[in-house]
Amino acid sequence: MALFPTYNRFPLSVQSATGAEITDIHGKTYLDFGSGIGVCNLGHCHPIVQKAVEKQLHLYWHTSNLYENPIQSKVAAQITTHSHGDYVFFCNSGAEANEAAIKLARKATGKEKIITFQQSFHGRTFATMAATGQEKVREGFGTMLEKFAYATFNNLASVEQLIDENTAAVMVEVVQGEGGVHPADHEFMEGVATLCKENNILLIVDEIQTGIGRTGKKFGFEHYQIEPDIFTLAKGLGNGLPVGAMVAKAAYKDDFGPGSHGSTFGGNPLAMASANAVLQIVFEDTFIDEVEAKATYLQEKLEKEIAPLASVQAIRQKGMMVGIDCHKSVAPIVTQLLDKGLLVLLAGDTVVRLLPPLIVTEAQMDEAIELLKETLATF
Ligand code: PLP
Question: Which listed CATH number (3.90.1640.10, 2.40.50.220, 3.60.20.10, 3.90.1150.10) goes with 14-46+285-376?
Answer without folding.
Answer: 3.90.1150.10
